[in-house]
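Subject: for your reference before the review

Hello V.,

The reviewers asked for a structural picture of the protein, and I figured it would be easier to keep everything in one thread rather than splitting it across files. Below is the amino acid sequence we used in the manuscript, unchanged from the supplementary table.
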Amino acid sequence: MAIVSEDPSNPCYEIKSADLSLVALVLNTTDMDEVSQALKRQMDESPGFFDQDPVVIDVGGLNLAEDQTIDLNALMGVLRAHQLVPLAIKGAPAALLTLARGAGLVDASDARIRRSVPPVERPAPLLVPPVPPAGAMIIDKPLRSGQQVYAKGRDLIVMGMVNPGAEVIADGHVHVYGALRGKAIAGARGNGDAHIFAQVMEPELISIAGVYRTSENALPKDILGRAAHVFLQSGAEGDKLVITPLHA
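And here is what came back from the structure prediction:
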């Protein structure tokens, strides 16, 4: 039996604002097999990285004409097969947008997607690593080549060295109280407020919210091998990594 409210001050529903954390899939190809293979590699390398996450499909980089489309049904099938839930589309021309709406996707043309620009370093005053919140994952031993640790939904604290070939990943901050010589990925699910701290900064790769820098782009002498701090800075031209020394 249905319950009906006869009190006009107590309506049967309310409209309220809500926040939802979304993953953006920025397409650089229309080859869905290639996308599928890349997602499979991601899941093989980081089991549990995707967990029914809602996703915005960003096709702006494909530079499609107004009458062009992509194999949207195939793409949505690929995403669902890899534990992603397609929810919206961004940057779609008219023909593709009509197709997307028919498939139940929302037009997210106004959504802001973080874009990468070349990383920079700039000096900074005294910086002290923030105290990580309760519930952070703590690793109390060095990580060897080939080992990977993923702190899903929280910060990661490594008490020892992250050796070359090892990888530490966190949805929050990454703290390495030793030498960071492998890969460190913070804000893995797009948290641009995440930070990376290391007592000895000599990484193969550092990344925050998808903006990354590799060892091929050498760190300056005042940072390499020293205690340092990495964070993401947003500007009119996009997002960039800022790397600063930590002073005692």
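For the response letter, the relevant points are probably these. The first strand starts at residue 23 and ends at 26. The chain has two domains: 23-107, 120-245.

Happy to draft the paragraph if you're swamped.

O.
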